[in-house]
Design brief:
It contains two helices and eight strands, in the order αβββαβββββ. By secondary structure, the protein is an alpha+beta fold. The chain has one domain: Protein of unknown function (DUF3299) (OB fold (Dihydrolipoamide Acetyltransferase, E2P)). A hairpin with a 2-residue loop joins strand 2 and strand 3. The longest helix is centred in the N-terminal third of the chain and has 18 residues. It is globular. The N and C termini lie far apart (48 Å).
Length: 144
C-alpha cells in the first residue's frame, strides 16, 4: 500500500510542471534587437515568447481616460502620455497592457509588475484606433 502512495506522489511531482504554467520575465532591453529603415526589429526572445504569459516591470503612463481597459507600460516614469499616432513612431521603451478586467490605475511614478499574454506585430485596437507593436493581453498588474 505504501508503495502505491509513493508512486502516486512521484507521478504528481512529475506532472506538476505540465499543469503549472511558468511566467517568463521580459525586460525592456529584451524587446528589440535593432532599428533600421524598416523600423524596429523584435528579438528572438520576443518571438519565442509570443502567445505565452510573461511579466514586465515598469511604470504606468497616464491613461487616456480613467475608465480605460488598457494602459501603456513605460521603462521610465512619464508625466505625460507617450501615445503615438502610428506604429512608425513607436518608442522602443513602451508596451501596451490590455487588462483582463478593469483595475484602479496607479500614479505614473509607481513601479508596477504587469503580467499577460505577449503579442507582437502591428495591430490596431478596433475600439480605440490605438496602434501598437507590442502588447500584453488578458493582463493584470500589481504595485511593486
Amino acid at each position: 500500500m505504501k508503495h502505491y502512495r509513493f508512486l502516486h506522489l512521484w507521478l504528481i511531482f512529475l506532472l506538476l510542471p505540465c499543469v503549472t504554467q511558468a511566467t517568463e520575465h521580459l525586460a525592456f532591453e529584451d524587446l528589440y534587437k535593432s532599428e533600421g529603415i524598416y523600423g524596429l526589429s523584435f528579438t528572438q526572445k520576443v518571438k519565442d515568447l509570443a502567445g505565452k504569459r510573461v511579466r514586465v516591470e515598469g511604470f504606468m503612463a497616464p491613461p487616456l481616460k480613467a475608465e480605460a481597459n488598457f494602459f501603456v507600460l513605460t521603462q521610465k516614469p512619464m508625466a505625460i502620455c507617450p501615445f503615438c499616432s502610428s506604429d512608425a513612431d513607436w518608442p522602443a521603451d513602451i508596451v501596451v497592457i490590455y487588462l483582463e478586467k478593469k483595475q484602479t490605475f496607479v500614479q505614473y511614478n509607481a513601479m508596477i509588475l504587469a503580467e499577460g499574454i505577449l503579442e507582437y506585430g502591428s495591430w490596431t485596437d478596433p475600439d480605440t484606433g490605438f496602434v501598437s507593436l507590442l502588447r500584453l493581453k488578458e493582463a493584470t498588474f500589481k504595485k511593486r
